[in-house]
Specification:
With 135 residues, the protein is an alpha+beta fold. The protein has 4 helices and 4 strands; from the N terminus they run H-E-E-E-H-H-E-H. The chain has helices at residues 13-22, 60-77, 79-88, 106-134, and strands at 24-28, 31-38, 46-51, 91-98. The protein has a 4-stranded mixed β-sheet, sandwiched between helices. The longest helix has 29 residues, at 106-134.
Length: 135
C-alpha cells in the first residue's frame, strides 16, 4: 500500500505525449502539475511522472534529491487519489515538475503534494459532474 511500484510510474511514450499535449495544468509552487483523466476504465489506476529539469537544478545530485522528495511524499499521500480513481472508475496520469531553483524542504513538498492531489480530485469531480449534466 505504501509502495511506489513500476505500475505506478508513467513510462509509456504515447501517454506522456498525450499528457503534455492534451492535459490540464496548474501551478502549486514550487511545482507545475499536468494531468489527464480517462473515464470508464475497467481497472482504474493512477500513474505519475516525476520531473526535475536541468533548467532549474543544474547538478544531478540536486535533481535526484528533489525527485526522491517528491516520490516519498507522493508515496505517503497517494491513498486519497487512488481511492477516488477506483470510486469513479477512471485512469489518472499526473506529471509533477519542479519549477524552482531552490531545493524545497520536505515539509514544503509534503504540503504541496497534498494540495496537488486534492486539487486534482476536486477538478476531476467537477469535470465528471459537467459531463453527467450534459448527457
Amino acid at each position: 500500500m505504501f509502495q511506489f511500484t513500476k505500475r505506478e510510474k508513467l513510462c509509456n511514450r504515447t501517454e506522456i505525449q498525450n499528457l503534455f499535449t492534451k492535459g490540464q495544468s496548474f501551478l502549486v509552487y514550487p511545482f507545475s502539475v499536468r494531468y489527464t483523466i480517462k473515464d470508464n476504465t475497467i481497472s482504474p489506476k493512477v500513474k505519475v511522472l516525476l520531473l526535475s529539469p536541468k533548467r532549474y537544478q543544474k547538478l544531478a545530485v540536486s535533481r535526484n534529491r528533489v525527485k526522491r522528495l517528491i516520490r516519498e511524499t507522493y508515496r505517503l499521500s497517494k491513498d486519497s487519489i487512488i481511492k477516488f480513481a477506483k470510486q469513479e472508475a477512471c485512469d489518472i496520469n499526473i506529471s509533477i515538475s519542479l519549477v524552482s531553483k531552490d531545493i524545497p524542504t520536505y515539509y514544503l513538498v509534503d504540503e504541496s503534494m497534498k494540495k496537488i492531489l486534492n486539487r486534482i480530485i476536486i477538478n476531476t469531480k467537477d469535470d465528471i459532474e459537467k459531463n453527467c449534466q450534459n448527457n
